[in-house]
Amino acid sequence: MAYRGEPHAGPSCYRHDASPASSQCASCQRHICSQCELFDGTRPSCPDCATAHRQRRRKHRLILAGTLVALIAGGLGLVAAAVPRVRPTHVFGMLPSQIETLRGELNRLDAALARQPCDRRTIVELSEGRLRLGEPAAALSDLDSFVQKCGDFRPLHYLRHLAHEALGQHAVAIAEATAWMGEYPKDKDYPWWRGDAYRNSGDLTHAAADYRLALTMQPGRRGVADDLAQVEAALANR
User: Which of 13, 15, 34, 53 meets the CB 3.0–4.6 Å disulfide criterion with 223?
Assistant: First the structure.
C-alpha cells in the first residue's frame, strides 16, 4: 500500500490525485482511496454517490412518515405495523459486523505499534481505521504521540487534517494547512485541503480563493473544479 503523496502504480483516487485507489465505487465505477471509501450496506461508494444514496433514503423515509401520519389521522393506525422499516446503518454506513471486524483490526494495529512505535505504515493504517470508525480524537492522539516520538512525515498531514475537520476544528485545520503550504509551496493538495476547511467553517470567499489556487497549480483537476463550482454557485445565491 503506497502512502499518500508517494509514487504508486495503478489508478489514483478521483478526488485525491496523490492517493492510490483502494477500490471502485459500486455505483459510478470511479476509483477511490481509503479515505474516500464509504459503504452503502456492503458496497463501496464514493462520497458523491454515498450522499446521493443518503438523500434518496431520507426522501423515502419522509414519504413513509407522511403516509403513516395520514393513515393514523384517518383512524387506520393499525396499518402502521405494515410500514417497512429502513435497514439501520452505523458508522460511515457500516453494519455492526463490519464495525466489529474493523475494531479487531485496530486492536491488532495498536498492539503492533506498541511493539514497533515508529513504524510508519502501522500509524497510517491505524489512524485511517480510527477515522473510518468515527474516532477522530483517538486518531489525533495516536498521531501526536507518534510525531513526538518518531518525528513527522507528510502522509500524516492529511490524516491530521481529516481528524481536525471531523472534530469541527476548522481553524486548526486552516492553520496547519497554511503552515504546510509555506513548507511545501509546490504541493497541490494543501490549498485544496485549506479550501475545504474554509468551506466547512462557512468562509466561502476564502474557500473559492484556495480552490482557484489549487486549479492554478493543476488545471482541470476534477474534484477541485467541482468544489469550486459548488462554492461559486453558493456565493452567487447569497
Answer: 15
DSSP code at position 117: T
Query: For residue 164, which of 192, 186, 183, 141 has the smallest C-alpha distance?
Result: 141
CA distance 227 to 159: 20
Q: Which domain holds residue 131?
A: 94-167
Q: Is 79 part of a structural domain of the chain?
A: no
Which of 112, 137, 167 lies at the terminal end of a domain, its last residue? 167
pTM value is 0.62
Instruction: Name the band, by pLDDT with cuts 50, 70 and 90, for residue 42.
Output: low
Beta bridge partners, 31, equal 24
Interatomic CA distance for residues 39 and 17, integer angstroms: 21
132 close to 162: Cβ distance less than 8 angstroms: no
- The CA R_g of the chain, rounded to the nearest whole Å, is 21
Residue 11: inside a domain: no
Cell of 167: 472534530
Helix (H) or strand (E) holding 77: none
110 touches 126 (CB < 8 A): yes
Query: Which of 5-14, 16-25, 136-145, 153-162 shows the lowest per-residue confidence on average (mean pLDDT)?
Result: 5-14
Ramachandran category for residue 186: left, alpha or beta (phi over 0 → left; psi -120 to 50 → alpha): alpha
129 shares a domain with 193: no
CB contact burial 57-70 (16+ within 10 A = b; e otherwise): eeeeeeeeeeebee
Mapped onto helix, strand or coil, the DSSP state of residue 44 is: strand
